Amino acid sequence: MSSAVRTARMAPRLSALVRPAVARATPSVCQRAAFSVSANRFKSEVIKETEVPVSIYSPDAKGVASGNSDHFSIPVKARQRAPEPVAEEVDEEVVPLEEKVYSTLPKTLQKMSLYGKVVIITGGARGLGNYMARACAEAGAKAIAIFDANQDLGDESAAELHQKTGLPVSFFKVDVRDGHAIDAAVKNVVDLYGAPDVLVNSAGIADSNIPAETYDPAMFRRLIDINLTGSFLMSQSVGRAMMAAGKPGSIILVASMSGSIVNYPQEQSCYNASKAGVIQLGKSLAAEWAKYNIRVNCISPGYMDTALNKVPALDAQKKIWKSLTPQDRLGNVDDLNGLCVFLGSDASGFMTGSNVIIDGGYSLY
After folding, report:
1. pTM of the full structure
2. Cα–Cα dist 30/173, whole Å
3. Which of 164, 168, 100, 105 is nearest to 134 (CA)?
4. How confident is the model at residue 53 (pLDDT cuts 50, 70, 90)?
5. Which of 98, 109, 346, 361 has a beta carbon 3.0–4.6 Å from 326's, enabling a disulfide?
6. What is the 3-state secondary structure (H, E, C) of 7-70?
7. Which of UniProt's keywords are assigned here (predicted)?
């Protein structure tokens, strides 16, 4: 990371650390000498084993604990520099969780699945939403409904997911700003598959590199309407369906780390404000709907390596984003999948009102 970038990023935080000078007692010569001896002693006590003793206790052929044991040592090698992380290609195969496999899973893993659940995913025609839809299929969803404003991509994605999994998959051309269209689509999902168990609200847009003083108010209203109002309208409609069915449910709102921090170097006040609103909306709905056993949580991704970010115009900024991220990379398109499945599953049954940041450590600095 360049010193200029780190200084710009850390300056506001470092300034907060400045405090008025306070008179302190000066350590005596004896105290300093004692500390020096102690520090040297600890340096000399660093343990550097050349081998590690191991004891293995194994069950018998029937899986029952026994007295079988094995004892040996493994050599210790000097640490080597970790290799640079490489973005892996995502396997396009989607294998759904079948009943015969689910029934053999331990109770903990069963709770971590979405087996038998009806899932609605907005923004599921492409990008992160589409990969989360695939993950829900692999986790055992009974049926998946994709809501998206793009007719062609939505139809294509739904057909592809159905062909790969054999699961019931439907597509609804829905603009998340249209409350009446949302209500009609949710009602049809209930008629087709039963009340939804999980909502993943991934629909959203981003405006970036626009100074606040020149931001078009019409653009501001449009972004807020899609990102924040759309999250509310989807949650409201799906929440009503869950309440009417008298069944528990999980609502997952895709927010952003930008709802908790201010990004650098790009200017994007409107996007940041919209995602901060989504986070607070999630907390508020979680508090209101806990009595209905409906949980509401947020996923806040960091910089993700989606198709929208793979443009030459962003190359310079992406270098800065990576340099400010401890893992030194952007998120892969499937890096949200596991968290999405967990939040939709019964394994997170005591979790509501949380905002889970998944950003490679970016917000640590």
Report:
1. 0.79
2. 78
3. 164
4. confident
5. 361
6. HHHHHHHHHHCCCCCCCCCCCCHHHHHHHHHHHHHHHHCCCCCCEEEEEEECCCCCCCCCCCEE
7. NADP, Oxidoreductase
